Structure formats: C-alpha cells, structure tokens
Hints:
The chain has helices spanning 6-11, 14-20, 28-60. By secondary structure, the chain is mostly helical.
Amino acid sequence: IACGRPILRVCLWTCPLVLLTGSENESPEITALSRTIEVFLGALVGGVLHYLEVMMIRRLGIYAEVQPQETPDPANASGD
Length: 80
C-alpha cells in the first residue's frame, strides 16, 4: 500500500504505536479512543494558544510591516 507513497509509510506506524502503549487492563478500542482524544485535545489547546498569541501581538502592535520592494523598470535599464 505504501509503495511509492512516502506519506503513508509514516501512517503505518500509528496503529502499532497506539496499540503498544495500551495496558493489559484496557481493550485496544479504549486505548485507541484515549489516544485519539489526547491528540484532539492537544490540537485544540495548541490552536487556542496560537489564537491568543496572535491577538496579543496585534493588540500590542508587535508585528513587522513588510514594505513592498520596488521592481526595476525594464524600460529604464540603464539606471537613469
């Protein structure tokens, strides 16, 4: 399945890693659900913190405005 698709090669490790981190007391389904919830919670917290950071930067005015560079005029290539 992963032949010629390097992105899928990483995905093939996800299932064994999730199942190997489970304990003997819980089923593989509960382990997979726990890990999925952990990933979504981490993404949610990261997204909220990023949003708050952007809002703080905008409020404090700590952003650098990028000035567009002038492109040389081909009609005036001699520099006059």
